[in-house]
């Protein structure tokens, strides 16, 4: 495990700051404020990503009946983590969290507990190494039964398109028919044009480096899967309770046929 570096802003901690959390350092808060000045909608994007997670897991554990979740790029624990939403619907749900940030590891071990009937585990792995993700998850998840693979705000750290497509393909290949893939991904579409300069600024000073993708590139990740209605859409509009404005974050939930 790498050690916690307080001298360079790290994504998990800056994300926590935008979400109003306390698990961040001065260097993260300064980066978070600078980005917010350049791209004011970023806090909305973070909040909507979490609310999408709650609605997506509610759908998956409820209507879709999924009992196993592989949440890659977990982030620092906050309200409505995947296991809390899933186990509220079905206490026996089994959840594996995966992240490679050392501070996430410390907090996750302490805070991501489980219902007595279910299981919550944490794997310290890099999404670039799918074999390690899958072998770690295999301690807890049965890959003969459907799994919901959650990739919320994580493919944006896989900078190479071919590699990102390969990672998604390997994960989908590893799970059986009736499994699901959920993705959120930042974009410069949907009003995200100001994110270009903000990301350039971020990438010069923070880690890991991040990128956007457009709708067609996200659609390619779920090619061959059945999209859950309403398909690939701005995150706040996916299973929205009422009218919802767009933010520059694509979201999709898809089922492996
Ligand atoms: C933007 S946060 C998203 C957190 C959460 N999924 C959400 O939607 O609120 C991205 C997370 O991905 C993690 N991450 C970044 N690169 C990673 C990698 N190569 N492997 C595993 N996790 C990574 C970061 O540490 C961070 O916790």
Describe the structure.
It is a single chain. Helices cover 39% and strands 16% of the residues. It has 257 residues and is an alpha/beta fold. Helix 7 links the parallel strand 4 and strand 5. It has nine helices and eight strands. It has helices at residues 11-18, 26-38, 42-61, 82-89, 102-111, 130-137, 161-174, 195-205, 215-221, and strands spanning 68-72, 94-99, 119-124, 148-152, 180-186, 226-227, 233-234, 249-255. The model has no long low-confidence stretch (mean pLDDT 95). S-adenosylmethionine (SAM) binds next to helix 1 and helix 3.
Q: How would you characterize the largest beta sheet?
A: 8 strands, mixed
Which segments are poorly predicted (pLDDT under 50) over 5 or more consecutive residues?
A: none
Radius of gyration: 17 Å
How large is the count of helical segments?
Answer: 9
Distance between the termini: 37 Å
The residue fraction in helices comes out at 25-40%
Give the helix/strand class. Answer: alpha/beta
- Bound compounds: S-adenosylmethionine
The amount of beta strand, in percent, is 15-25%
Q: Give a count of the beta strands, DSSP E runs of length 2 or more.
A: 8
**Morphology:** globular
Report mean pLDDT, rounded to a whole number.
Answer: 95
Order of helical and strand elements: HHHEHEHEHEHEHHEEE
Please render the helix and strand layout as text:
Blueprint: H1 11-18, H2 26-38, H3 42-61, E1 68-72, H4 82-89, E2 94-99, H5 102-111, E3 119-124, H6 130-137, E4 148-152, H7 161-174, E5 180-186, H8 195-205, H9 215-221, E6 226-227, E7 233-234, E8 249-255
Parallel strand pairs: 1-2, 1-4, 2-3, 4-5
Antiparallel strand pairs: 5-8, 6-8, 7-8
């Amino acid at each position: 495990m790498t050690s916690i570096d307080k001298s360079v802003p790290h994504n998990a901690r800056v994300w926590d700051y935008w979400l109003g959390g306390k698990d961040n350092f001065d260097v993260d808060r300064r980066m978070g404020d600078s980005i917010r000045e350049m791209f004011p909608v970023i806090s909305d994007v973070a909040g909507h990503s979490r609310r999408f997670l709650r609605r997506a897991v509610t759908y998956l554990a409820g209507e879709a009946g999924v009992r196993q979740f592989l949440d890659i790029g977990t982030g620092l624990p906050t309200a409505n983590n995947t296991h809390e939403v899933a186990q509220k619907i079905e206490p026996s749900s089994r959840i594996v969290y995966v992240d490679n940030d050392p501070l996430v590891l410390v907090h996750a071990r302490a805070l991501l507990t489980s219902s007595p009937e279910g299981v919550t585990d944490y794997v310290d792995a890099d999404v670039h190494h799918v074999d390690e993700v899958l072998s770690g998850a295999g301690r807890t998840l049965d890959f003969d039964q459907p799994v919901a693979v959650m990739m919320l705000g994580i493919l944006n750290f896989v900078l190479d398109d071919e590699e990102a497509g390969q990672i998604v393909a390997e994960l989908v290949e590893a799970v059986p028919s009736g499994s699901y893939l959920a993705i959120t991904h930042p974009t410069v579409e949907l009003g995200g044009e100001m994110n270009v300069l903000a990301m350039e600024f971020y990438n010069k000073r923070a880690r890991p480096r991040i990128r956007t993708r457009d709708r067609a590139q996200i659609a390619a990740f779920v090619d061959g899967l059945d999209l859950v209605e309403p398909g690939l859409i701005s995150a706040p509009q996916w299973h929205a309770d009422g009218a919802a404005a767009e933010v520059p974050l694509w979201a999709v939930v898809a089922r492996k046929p």
